[in-house]
């Protein structure tokens, strides 16, 4: 670092003042003698910690995708199953047996099997499940609503948001925010599989439209 | 930094400061400048991109442009100083240095706030989807953006004026960690909701393979988003922490000797940001295609 020296001889002729800037940045007596660990140990430790954090976060997120968002198991699903149709009752009995033996089926598998059950039932009823482009009539949708409603109840989903989410999974409600989200987040899935929206405020509107 | 003046204290285990050639800084600054200017141009030209989401992305690009521009200017002035044309301790040069430092500081603060604003905007668009257009009117977006600019401008000026005080460094570190925590919270909550819905949709027959793949891609995207933010900012912030905590420890001294590498990481964040935020959107990419195809066809017509 440069040192500037000014000889101030005009104000006090007898004394020569020496002005200098002292830069203390690099003049600390840091001694490197007797280092026990490697001198870059903090650097290495920092980067290892950072890498561990990022990898840990990635693994936690992938674990979440594999097992699904954690759901508390319903406390007493047994009495709700009484309302289900025959195939679902069979499944319920199967589940009871498994819980008694100590096995627990994940909720997702159970819901999937119940969906399969209901879809088979609908197909047996005469093809009302097959998508009919021209017919957005209430009969089809009502059947689906009932099926979904029962399944939702049996899975013990009490919160309004979850009920709506399950309803929405079956209805293509045109949503202008959808296109914006997909353009905002990119076509390849960034954060969302299919942009799902919880419509809290639309609930009165939607349910009226569906049920009537 | 000249280590020859410390001859009595240096031995073979000394950590000399790692110097990064200014050409590297200039190259990164030029790349960042061109990318972010492209983003700003695309957002201004395309009327479809005049929405709150793209306003925040454009704002991030503006802050990155300012930071890379002022960093490039600082490097050029440093080159002039090394060549002897400028006096490194003259009052004019010190003032210019202060102005550029405060611009850089302002743009760093601004990019942190912009990233936070983008995360909040995405959060609102997912969890309050129907009220989104009532909550995020263009007027409110302008108010938010001007508040960010005023806050960052004054903070940048104040921080550089009083940089010696430790409160400034503590403020910067605390701000970064708060922003990181909020961003993690918002994005993980959005991710959980997305997985929740995707699982239900996947429970219908025939959607198995797509579900797994999309889940992994979402996790990867989120990891890249947060990982890049942390990897670019954390070394510099840790440097500030170490400056406050252990100024005389030899281990800390070895960490501080890598300062210029950490600044390179910080500046390269401005290069990576458009790739993560702006170029992901198909609408923006289509704007570029239209711009370049139109100009290419015009050139072809002129040639023929």
From TrEMBL, chain A:
Q: Name one GO molecular function term.
A: type 3 melanocortin receptor binding
Q: What family, per the record?
A: Belongs to the MRAP family.
List the InterPro entries. Answer: MRAP
Which biological process terms from the Gene Ontology are attached to this UniProt entry?
A: protein localization to plasma membrane; regulation of adenylate cyclase-activating G protein-coupled receptor signaling pathway
Q: What is this protein called?
A: Melanocortin-2 receptor accessory protein 2A
What is the organism of origin for this protein? Phoxinus phoxinus
Please state where this protein is localized: Cell membrane; Endoplasmic reticulum membrane
Upper classification of the source organism reads: Eukaryota, Metazoa, Chordata, Craniata, Vertebrata
On the tree of life, the source organism's domain of life is Eukaryota
What do the Gene Ontology cellular component annotations say? endoplasmic reticulum membrane; plasma membrane
Q: Which UniProt keywords apply?
A: Cell membrane, Endoplasmic reticulum, Membrane, Transmembrane, Transmembrane helix
Membrane topology reported for the UniProt record? Single-pass membrane protein
Q: Which Pfam families match?
A: MRAP
Where does the chain cross the membrane?
A: 40-64
Q: Which PANTHER family match?
A: MELANOCORTIN-2 RECEPTOR ACCESSORY PROTEIN 2
UniProtKB/TrEMBL annotation, chain B:
Mind listing the UniProt keywords for this protein, alphabetically?
Cell membrane, G-protein coupled receptor, Glycoprotein, Membrane, Receptor, Transducer, Transmembrane, Transmembrane helix
Q: What is one GO cellular-component annotation here? A: plasma membrane
Keyword ATP-binding on entry: no
* Gene3D superfamilies from the UniProt entry: Rhodopsin 7-helix transmembrane proteins
Among Pfam families, the record links this protein to:
7tm_1
- What membrane topology does this protein have? Multi-pass membrane protein
Asked whether the UniProt record includes Transmembrane among its keywords, one would answer: yes
Q: So where does this one cross the membrane?
A: 20-44, 56-79, 99-120, 141-164, 170-194, 215-238, 258-279
Chain coiled-coil ranges: none
Per the UniProt entry, what are the Gene Ontology biological process annotations, in alphabetical order? Answer: regulation of gene expression
UniProt-annotated location(s):
Cell membrane
User: Domain G-protein coupled receptors family 1 profile: where?
Assistant: 35-277
Q: Which SUPFAM superfamilies match?
A: Family A G protein-coupled receptor-like
Q: What one GO molecular function would you report for this record?
A: melanocyte-stimulating hormone receptor activity
Q: Which family does it belong to?
A: Belongs to the G-protein coupled receptor 1 family.
Q: What is this protein called?
A: Melanocyte-stimulating hormone receptor
């Amino acid at each position: 670092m440069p040192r500037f020296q000014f000889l101030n001889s005009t104000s006090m002729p007898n004394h020569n003042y020496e002005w200098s800037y002292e830069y203390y940045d690099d003049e600390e007596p840091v001694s490197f003698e007797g280092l026990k660990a490697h001198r870059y140990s903090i650097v290495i430790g920092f980067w290892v910690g950072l890498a561990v954090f990022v990898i840990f976060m990635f693994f936690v997120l992938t674990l979440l995708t594999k097992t699904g968002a954690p759901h508390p198991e319903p406390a007493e699903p047994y009495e709700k199953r009484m309302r289900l149709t025959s195939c679902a009752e069979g499944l319920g009995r199967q589940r009871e047996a498994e819980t008694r033996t100590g096995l627990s089926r994940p909720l997702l598998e159970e819901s999937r099997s119940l969906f399969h059950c209901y879809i088979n039932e609908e197909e047996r009823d005469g093809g009302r499940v097959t998508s009919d482009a021209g017919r957005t009539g209430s009969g089809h949708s009502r059947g689906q609503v009932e099926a979904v409603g029962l399944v939702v109840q049996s899975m013990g989903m009490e919160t309004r948001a979850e009920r709506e989410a399950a309803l929405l999974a079956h209805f293509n409600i045109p949503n202008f925010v959808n296109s914006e989200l997909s353009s905002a987040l990119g076509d390849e899935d960034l954060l969302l599989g299919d942009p799902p929206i919880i419509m809290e405020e639309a609930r009165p509107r939607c349910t009226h439209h569906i049920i009537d | 930094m000249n280590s020859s003046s410390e001859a009595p204290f240096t031995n073979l285990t000394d950590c000399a400061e790692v110097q990064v050639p200014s050409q590297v800084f200039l190259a990164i600054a030029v790349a960042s400048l061109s990318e972010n200017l492209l983003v700003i141009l695309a957002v201004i030209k395309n009327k479809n991109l005049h929405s709150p989401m793209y306003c925040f992305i454009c704002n991030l690009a503006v802050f990155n442009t300012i930071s890379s521009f002022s960093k490039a200017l600082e490097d050029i002035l440093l080159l002039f100083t090394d060549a002897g044309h400028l006096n490194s301790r003259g009052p004019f040069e010190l003032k210019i240095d202060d102005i550029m430092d405060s611009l850089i500081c302002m743009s760093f603060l601004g990019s942190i706030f912009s990233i936070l604003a983008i995360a909040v905007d995405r959060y609102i668009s997912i969890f309050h989807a129907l009220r989104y257009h009532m909550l995020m009117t263009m007027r409110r977006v302008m108010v938010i953006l001007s508040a960010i600019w005023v806050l960052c401008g004054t903070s940048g000026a104040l921080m550089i004026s009083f940089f010696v005080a430790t409160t400034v460094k503590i403020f910067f570190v605390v701000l970064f960690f708060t922003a990181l925590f909020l961003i993690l919270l918002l994005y993980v909550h959005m991710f959980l909701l997305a997985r929740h819905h995707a699982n239900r949709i996947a429970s219908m027959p025939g959607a198995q393979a797509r579900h797994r793949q999309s889940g992994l891609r979402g996790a990867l995207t989120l990891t890249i988003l947060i990982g890049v933010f942390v990897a670019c900012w954390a070394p510099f912030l840790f440097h500030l922490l170490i400056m406050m905590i252990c100024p005389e420890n030899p281990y800390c001294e070895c960490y501080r000797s890598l300062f210029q590498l950490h600044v390179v990481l910080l500046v390269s964040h401005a290069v990576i940001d458009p790739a993560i935020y702006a170029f992901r959107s198909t609408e923006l990419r289509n704007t570029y295609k239209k711009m370049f195809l139109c100009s290419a066809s015009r050139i072809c017509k002129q040639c023929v």
